[in-house]
Amino acid sequence: MASTSRLFQDLEEVGRIEASILKSTKIHKVMKAITKLDPDTIPLEEEYRFISRARDLLDLYMNVLAEDTEGKEMRPLEEALDRVLVIGSTDPTREASL
Predict the structure, then answer these.
(1) Domain locations in the chain?
(2) CA distance 12 to 48
(3) pLDDT tens by residue, 39-96
(4) Phi and psi, residue 4, nearest 5°
(5) Which listed residue, 49, 63, 78, 86, has the most CB atoms within 10 A of its CB?
(6) Which of 1, 78, 97 has the alpha carbon at shortest distance from 47?
(7) Is 28 exposed, middle or buried (0-12, 13-18, 19+ CB in 10 A)?
C-alpha cells in the first residue's frame, strides 16, 4: 500500500494536468472509480486515505476538463458574434460594431 500511496503523492505533487493528458490517460475515471469503493474493502484506508485523496484529485481534474470544455463551447459563439451583420444592410461584408 505504501507504493500506491507514493503514486497518489506523485499525482498530488503534479497538481493540474493538461486536459489532453487527462483525456488520453483517463486518470480522472480511475479516481472516480476509487471514490466509489467501499472503504472497508481497501487495506489500510484509514492510514492512507485513498478515497479522500482520489476525491480531491478528481475535483481538480474535473475543473480542468470543465475549463477546457467551456473554452471550446464559447469559441463558436464568440466567432458568430464577431460576424454579425448590420441589420438591414445590403452589404454582406459590412459587420456590426459591438
Answers:
(1) 2-72
(2) 13
(3) 999 999 999 999 999 999 999 999 999 988 765 655 555 555 555 544 445 555 555 4
(4) -65, -40
(5) 49
(6) 1
(7) buried
